[in-house]
Amino acid sequence: xxxxxxxxxxxxxxxxxxxxxxxxxxxxxxxxxxxxxxxxxxxxxxxxxxxxxxxxxxxxxxxxxxxxxxxxxxxxxxxxxxxxxxxxxxx
Length: 91
Description:
The protein has about 90 residues and is α/β, with parallel strands linked by helices. It contains 3 helices and 3 strands, in the order H-E-H-E-E-H. It has helices at about 20-30, 50-55, 80-90, and strands at about 35, 60-65, 75-80. It has a 3-stranded parallel β-sheet. The longest helix is centred in the N-terminal third of the chain and has 12 residues, at about 20-30. The N and C termini lie close together (about 10 Å).
């Protein structure tokens, strides 16, 4: 993961403007790595993000203490809090 040349961060809080959301979805559809951190997996449009990533065969990692309705889409699940899992994941 350290070899990623470009990293894009998209945080969606509440209702994003249409252009922002379409840009986020486009980036997710073209990513090689998708990491989801602490989501319920039931609030759309964010709940659909792992499906978009899978369209490009991206490696999908879920960091969440509990599984949710979308957990089956992820290649790797880390069942811990973000505060504990991220430092370990990023080294």
